[in-house]
Amino acid sequence: MAHAWTRISYEGFPAWCAQWADGTSAVVAEQGAQLLSWKTADGREHLYLSPASLRDGQAAIRGGVPVCFPQFNVRGPLPKHGFARNLRWQMLQADEDGIVMQLTDSAATRAFWPHAFDARLRITVHARQLTIGLDVQNTGQVPWSMTCALHSYLQVDDVAQTRLTGLQGLACWDALADTRFVQPPGDVGFAATTEPGFDRVFSTPGAAGKVLQLQQPGLPAGRRMEIVHSGTASEIVVWNPGVQLSHSLADMPDDGWRQMLCVEAASIDTPVQLAPGQQWSISQTLTLA
Ligand SMILES: O=P(O)(O)OC[C@H]1O[C@H](O)[C@H](O)[C@@H](O)[C@@H]1O
Q1: Which residues form the active site (predicted)?
Q2: 279 in a structural domain
């Protein structure tokens, strides 16, 4: 049973926070409905949040789980990663299972994008497992399209020691080298991530959900994370800025790249088309093995 969700200031961010009897806790910022912290009963934090992140209530928060909507990256005319991460979401429901946050169209969203929508982010928390689900509905009279991502910053002790399994055989676009290839067998390591970083989009065609494993071999057993994306996530984006970009990002410490790896459930290569009234969902579930 969770203590009631309470509105707090978490490291300077207005946020909703809950702690469960076993010690599990979660913190969700009002801005962007951005999950900022998820701690399991052992006290371990599983999300990276940059201590240098801006806290002005508008600039993107560097860390946690930003919701990129209705545009991913700079693949369109909107601000980078859309506007959802810059705006305040309403708390719709909060109980012992989790919390639901809502963003609907307003003058602020229509300034960028003329469409009517209802976006709900549902964060469900269990012992050692958390699910983030984004439901988007077209509440207008005309069809529209979007791209989106759940841009999770997973906290790692040292990215150079971290390995990701489950990507083999997937078509991959390396955004830094602008090359395309099929990911070879074996897991992916990030020891070479120091430079120039790592920024790849993996295609996951088909309806089955994709299962990845994040491993930190230097850590005791039981620190393995399973990452499952819903079948609607047609891409997985894996990103780490590396040394140079980390230095140039004003909202990240110089060595911030070492403690994080973004593994993102995304739907970006083919925009999602929604007819009036139509709804679409994407989710990511993180489980501590
Ligand atoms: O700095 P941001 O706007 O938050 O974007 C951070 C990163 O997001 C994604 O992972 C993209 O693949 C990267 O190319 C981008 O640099």
Answers
A1: 151, 264
A2: yes
